[in-house]
Amino acid sequence: MDKFKEALRSRILIADGAMGTMLHAAGVSLDCVLPELNLSAPDLVADVHARYVAAGADIILTNTFRASIPRLADAGLERQARDINAAGVRLAREAAAAADREIFVAGSIGPVHTGRQRAHMPVSERAEALREQAVFMAEAGVDLLLFETFAELDELVAGIEACAGLGLPMVGQLTFMEDERTLAGDEPETVAGALNTSALTVLGINCTLGPRGILSVLRRLSSCTTIPLSAQPNAGLPRMIGRRRFQYTLHNDYFARHARLYAELGAAIIGGCCGTTPEHIHAICEAVGNLPPGRASHVAATGGATAVESGKRPPTLRGLLEAKRFVIGAEFHPPQGSDPAMAVQIATELTHEGADFISVVPPSTARAQMSALSLACVLKLQTPHEIAVTITTWDRSTISLQADLLGVQACGIANVVCRTGNPPLQGDYPNLGGIWEVDSIGLIELLRSLNQGLDSNGVPVGTPSTFFIGARVNPGASDLEGELRRTKAKLAAGVDFLVTWPVYDLDRLSALLEGLGPERVPVLLSVQPIRDLDEAEFLRNEVPDVQIPDELLSRLGRVQGHQPDIGKQIALELISSARDLVEGVILVNRDESPLSWGRLINNVREVTRRAVTPDSMTG
Q1: Which option is the CATH number for 317-611: 3.20.20.220, 3.10.310.10, 3.40.50.2300, 3.40.50.1390?
Q2: Structure pTM?
Q3: Quick one: which of 126, 254, 307, 426 could link to 112 by a disulfide (CB 3.0–4.6 Å)?
Q4: Residue by residue, what is the 3-state secondary structure of 449-510?
């Protein structure tokens, strides 16, 4: 215990990266119970440990993240819990002993149950399960306990209290969502307040977020606690490369740059989570290895829809495109909770400012938010606006998709954009609870059948639907040829229009459109104005298949204090240059202020009539 705390005081300690990612890369199935490999495939686990030690890690985590008795019971392995945990410690201890320097072995402990199961097991019982697992690893000889990827503060607090009597240093890490709250809704300040007086040695963040998101949460934690901090981000967002196969593409230098920022905020432990590899850990070592830990100054911790009158219905999206009008759409996500009043207000403001339609897309985080379908129906029923809704097929059966589509049509919505989709990240290993009975192409075919008056089995359903079918296309895809083939398959399935992901490189857009040839249909260009250099680097490094040209980064880097204006100017220039390539744009604006949206829409309307100039900026 004293050795670990002394090391914390003397230098920044480097933790290892993802165990699950490395095991899956070695060929282990996504459905495998990874801790069981400590018994059935110890050489695989030992090799991962050895590679992280060679990369420079000071702390290696045991392969026991889901090795509590209740978690193992899900796979019928509860009787082997002690052996699995002990073997996990032994394998890590052997890797540490083989090194020529001091390596600390951390016993990895994850939440006892997933979110849906927690309600059926009291916190006190979960705390006891965490203590039982900790005892197994304490008996086997771990140097410290590391509680990771906890989404519920109460469970972490109870687990720490239950394990305090074991006499081991404890690191407690929660996972935060994009809105900088835990899945249970706790703010960083609340977390710090609850743990400031606990037996915790280090407080930290891991998983779900990439380097940039972790930095923002760490900054808030550092302002309200004097407990040493830790940070273990994911390697950005995963990219789906096959059925139940994902790939992370985050560059090492970007990861290392954020490690230095974590160090400046006082992080005492820095490592990686999902998608990170020994190469990422080596980059962290090069950036911050042997630096003394610093701490920020201590600051006391602080502890139904409204109907809108409808008027004359505007032209449909189909009608506007058939009339060769350049269309402008505005995209936003459903709000949290069940009150759509603000969404209705914003949609009304947007259409008053000149938006031709509202594009409702699914939530990007695992939050208690309305579904895109529900919000789209509310907007259609309570406003006169033209609505498009994006539907994803992940975790949906064909029958449930069909039922929702018929409901959407009954609400008067015709415009549906088809996506395969990914599950929102919630935890450590890339284990997927979702299903893909059909992908986006299957959804296009289903919509086409409904337009013919037939269900998925070819049985007549009465009056044919009138869906205007859209699909996503990504000009920034790393495999542009593969993206072109898949887009042609969508066209063959019967898609009526395409919607790009946000584009910043028109050369790639031109190449993709040229590849489609005479088969192409109307294309709507998604444009997301970049707020600053930090966001540009985040998009380039953490979001799969987003291509940010070097010139754009340089341009943002040359200005100080005016980056949001430059970001909007760049967006307008992109739209102006793409005017003859596409049939419309969809604005993706993180700032949901109606005034900000309105100015942007007006500017877009101007630049689609004439070449963009600096004078075209009005806000």
Answers
A1: 3.20.20.220
A2: 0.69
A3: 126
A4: HHHCCECCCCCECCCCCCCEEEEEECCCCCCHHHHHHHHHHHHHHCCCEEEECCCCCHHHHH
- Which residue blocks in 209-270 are alpha helix, DSSP H? 211-222, 252-264
Contact assessment for residue 224 and residue 189, using Cβ atoms and an 8 Å cutoff: yes
Is the pLDDT assigned to residue 111 strictly greater than 60? yes
What CATH number matches the domain at 2-288, 3.20.20.330, 3.30.420.40, 1.10.510.10, 1.10.8.80?
A: 3.20.20.330
Classify burial at 610, counting beta carbons within 10 Å of its beta carbon; exposed 0-12, middle 13-18, buried 19 or more: exposed
Of 567, 546, 547, 571, give the one whose Cα is nearest residue 557: 567
Whether 383 shows a pLDDT value over 80: the answer reads yes
Angle CA 214–215–218, to nearest 5: 85
DSSP element (H, E) containing 118: helix 115-118
Distances (CA, A) of 82 to 141, 367, 578, 611: 13, 35, 62, 70
How many other CB atoms sit within 10 Å of the CB of residue 419?
Answer: 19
Of 100, 16, 17, which is closest to residue 58 (Cα–Cα)? Answer: 16
Tokens, residue 316: 């449909």
CB-based contacts of 27, cutoff 8 Å, min separation 6:
none
**Domain extents in the chain:** 2-288, 317-611
- Nearest residue to 85 (alpha-carbon basis) of 130, 151, 32, 149: 130
Q: Residue with structure tokens 């083989």?
A: 98
pLDDT at 568: 87
Two tokens at 395? 């975790």
Q: What would the pLDDT profile of 23-62 be if each residue is shown by its tens digit?
A: 988 989 878 999 999 999 999 999 999 999 999 999 999 9
